[in-house]
Fold these 4 entries.
Entry 1:
Amino acid sequence: MQFSEKRNLTRWIIIISSFLIASLILWNTYVFFQTFKEEERNKMELWAKAQKTLMNSDVDTEIELPSFIIENNKNIPLILTDRKGKILSNLNLGEIENDSVKVKEVLNKIKSQNAPIKVQFAKNDYHLVYYGDSPILNKLKYYPIALLLVVFLFGGVVYNFYRATKMATQNKLWAGMAKETAHQIGTPLSSLIGWLELLKLENIDDTTIEEIQKDINRLQTITDRFSKIGSEPVLEKRNIIEETKASFEYLQSRVSKQVTFDFRAPEKPLFVSLNPILHSWTIENLVKNAIDAMKGKGSLSIEIVEGDANVYITVTDTGSGIAKNKFKTIFEPGYTSKKRGWGLGLSLTKRIVQEYHKGKIRVVHSEIGKGTTMQMIFKKES
């Protein structure tokens, strides 16, 4: 049996065992509650008999035991009525025992808790003893609820711990894979740089050399991106308009002419603390997602707006759109609408924006078949 299968089996054994233990405790609590409730009824029946004896007795020596039984009830609330429902007396009702209105309210309440006990004096002469649950019994009612809350709380703690451990393991795995990818790209990239230098000596057209140089620079950027995963990036005070526009123009020159690009931003620079390499990655992910949503044909715009304390970058496309209930789901690892894809692009983008740059990213608006507007928010530097 593989390690992962053993771990899953152990997890299910723990879950089932916890469920059985909780069920056993709840069942025992229920049995104890019913037993305690039966004991209280026996006490009330004994009290009713003592009341009958006391009312029928004419000899003082015969009332000692009934009086003791009646006076010994200090916990169970009760109300004594005649056969017509007239309240004759009450016991253990606290401060309301002299308030006839509130005593009647209590009577209506305890009628639903326990069946009354009949104290028969003659054929058509009897009293009824109505009694409620004692304070101890009332507390016992809520014990299972408190127990379930503790069980759920414990389960939540275990789940969050397991989830955090799993995410930490996945993060280490992805970071290791990313760094290994950067290392593997580095070797052929060094060779490409050498070959480019040889091409320059062969009098190749400058435009061709320039385009090859751009792609090599791009590969170096990608290598830097992957090498930074799993480590704390260095943030620099940069003009976010300039950094965003550079990534936007690079992608524009390499995308189908069927996509119309539009870039709008203030003429003055706006400074933000960011990592240029990681920021270009977020722009690339958002633009590529937008192009995929439009199936390579449509309009895409990026607008940068200055606020009082923040800088807002809005990416709008005319693609397939996103359902409203998926606005948050799309940022989760593994979510993808493509047949091929691992669903890491937007998850990584969110991490770069929120964890590394302390910004925010969200879906502002989306409509199925009409397009989507995404927005990133960064704190403005003076």
Note: The longest helix spans residues 143-201.
Entry 2:
Amino acid sequence: MVKLTTDEKDEEKIDNLIMDICRAYSELERIGVVRVGIILTDYIEWKVCRILNLVREENPITEGYDAKDKHNKKYQIKYRTDDENSSTSFDNIKFGKFDFLLCAFVNKENYKIKTIYKVPHDTVKIYSKPYHSNSFRWNRESKSDKTLEKVYP
């Protein structure tokens, strides 16, 4: 496990650097150079771990989970730039490898995390798409499931 050793000053510096990257990518997207959007998965995982006091998995290619909590529960972290009230899906879910899925919704312009939901593994399976079993379908029905927990803010 990688211990997060950055202090608040480092965290502010990292946040500012990410914002610079976001501004650059947004401008490149505006002028037509970037067509698929901004991909900052590592930053989102890092930030979610900071917010929820999780420890990121040391090996970045560990399949099925990204972090653990102090009780050794495993978390897979996914994010979307969609609004949390929109219907979307979280893809490439590795079932059987995690205890909870963390669904983070971020602002597309600055990649600040707006909300994070914690979804138990069994609930993720219930709402996986029938035609794509490695996806968790986020919609009105799944969002209202009683096992879902909004953990941020």
Note: The chain has a mean pLDDT of 87.
Entry 3:
Amino acid sequence: MKPPHRGPRHPSSLTPDSGAHAPARGTGRLFVVATPIGNLADLSPRAREVLGEVRWVLAEDTRRVRKLLNHFEIHTPVRSLHEHNEVREVPRLLAELATGSDLALVSDAGTPLLADPGYRLVRACRERGFQVLTVPGPSAATAALAVSGLPPIPFTFGGFLPAKGGARGTALDELASLPHTLVLFLSPHRLALELSACAAHLGRAREAALLAELTKVHERCVRGTLAELAVWAAGAQPLGEYTLVVGPPEAVLLPPPSRETARAAVDEASARGLDRAGALREAARTLRITRKELYTLLMRRDER
């Protein structure tokens, strides 16, 4: 089997990403490879090359990933890595890397680690000095955010909600305090229940977009308030994978402050003894705008 092209090694024995534990020459690398979330054409040429040349492909659902590999006539063996065997498997995989084998970690769909196992392995590789290289590609979280029509920055990704009601409510209460757009994965089996909980804990009037079957032929999006989406889901027959994008609290969606308001916020911060940089930073935080936006407001004020 032809090994993947490694490129030039760093001249020092301590490679740039190896930390305090530099791996010996010839040790293997871990590739973190994104896979399609619905449309097989989204698998990148580089991902195909890497998946075809590594020693093992590591996956939570080996049957699903094998279908993907078969579609592209990739014959690399697949090895199971999931939450129930990760503690046991990580030392074995580190031993494989130490012998020079390259490994690829994939998700069942999308970018690994966002809602799948693999964190323990990536962290262990970093701590032991093995190279961890990314092969980026599809991600349901960022794809949904990009097409939702809701403010993309800042956003917080919350993954799947807890299955139990008490834990779910606690998780949502913690997210509710953030002045961010939220991205969540919802279970189709609990869609109405989870949307109802989102409305109750995040705010019934918060604007949201529910997206399903991303990149597939029947990709769809339902927009409305969380309360409206909860009512819709109560009468729907959930099909496919769902990603929920929740807009920031209403205050964050208000029009930008006036120049007079911006100047007053800076003056108030300065009166508390902050230097100019600190006053600008504090004023931007108070007004919930970026420092660049604040600078623009102040410059326009000064030019009058």
Note: The longest strand covers residues 155-160.
Entry 4:
Amino acid sequence: MNTITRWDPVNTLVKFQDEFSRFFEEPVFRGLRLPASITAWTPAVDIFETEHELVLKAELPDMQEKDIDVRVENNTLTLSGERKYEKDFKEENALRMERYYGTFSRTFTLPNTVKLDAVKAEYRNGVLTVKLPKLEEAKPKQIKITVGNGK
């Protein structure tokens, strides 16, 4: 007995993409890929807001503080730097190289509510934390509600 199968173009595309990706991960193609060390990289960033400040956290593992530059000018925050490639193994012994090396730069436009002269940055455990305090007038204010007796 024949069964009718409904064609799902999205599912077909996903399967094709998986097969295509798997094809290029086979050992025969390993040497044909560009090493991650010569391709551009962009560190992952989380940005969140608290009552008193904006906080930006960037993942910058295996970097030294001297290789990271944080600048604030014209309501723009720029993170830049370089993660240096330190070879502690022979390249022919590498089975997989996925980490990125080299220079990076990320730029963020800041709102007018940031106190630019009070920005602080700290680098610890591979994470750069930039704290951007809010101007006093930008902080939320509690407004007391009075209850009238209707007269």
Note: The two ends are 84 Å apart (CA to CA).
